[in-house]
Design a protein that fits this description.
Layout lengths: L5 H7 L1 H23 L8 E7 L2 E6 L2 H10 L3 H9 L8 E6 L17 H13 L3 H11 L5
Parallel strand pairs: 2-3
Antiparallel strand pairs: 1-2
Helix pairs in contact: 1-2, 2-4, 5-6
C-alpha cells in the first residue's frame, strides 16, 4: 500500500477539504480587502484569519495599523457587501501589528567602464603573462558601457 501525499490527503480528506475551502476563502478576502482599501495600503497588511464573522488583519507596522483602525468602522460594510454572494458576513475587524520577515535581497552593483577605460584595460591584459590575471582583466574590459 502506497502512502498518500499531503496534497492527496488535503484534497480527499474531510478536514483537508475544509482547510482548502477556508484557505481559498482567505485568498478571496485578501482580494476584497485590496479593493476596499485606499491606495497601496493593502500591500502593507494581510488577512490573518476569519472565524465566525470576525476578520483578523495583520498590519506591517504601527502606522499602517493606525490607518486601518481609522478605516475599520467602514470596513465590515465594504467587505460584507462584496461577500454577500458567499453567504458570509464580516461583523468585526481586529487589527494586530505583525511585522513581515525582512527579505534578504542581494543588490548587485552594476558597474561599467567607459570605452576609453576598457581599451586601457585590454591593452594591459595583452601585456600580462599571468593567465589568471589576463582572464580577469579581459572580463573587466568586457564591462564597457556602449
Amino acid at each position: 500500500m502506497r502512502t498518500k501525499s499531503l496534497g492527496e490527503l488535503l484534497e480527499h480528506g474531510d478536514q483537508g477539504n475544509s482547510l482548502i475551502l477556508h484557505a481559498n476563502f482567505i485568498l478571496d478576502l485578501r482580494k476584497v480587502l485590496a479593493r476596499a482599501l485606499p491606495g497601496d495600503l493593502a500591500s502593507h497588511c494581510s488577512i490573518a484569519n476569519y472565524k465566525s464573522g470576525k476578520l483578523v488583519i495583520f498590519a506591517d507596522n504601527n502606522a499602517v495599523a493606525a490607518k486601518l483602525k481609522l478605516l475599520a468602522t467602514g470596513l465590515p460594510g465594504k467587505i460584507s457587501g462584496q461577500l454577500q454572494q458567499t453567504g458570509r458576513q464580516v461583523t468585526a475587524v481586529v487589527i494586530e501589528v505583525q511585522p513581515r520577515a525582512p527579505t534578504t535581497a542581494i543588490h548587485r552593483k552594476s558597474t561599467f567602464l567607459s570605452p576609453r577605460s576598457a581599451d586601457e584595460v585590454r591593452t594591459l591584459a595583452d601585456q600580462v603573462t599571468d593567465s589568471k590575471l589576463k582572464t580577469i582583466l579581459t572580463t573587466l574590459a568586457s564591462r564597457c558601457q556602449k
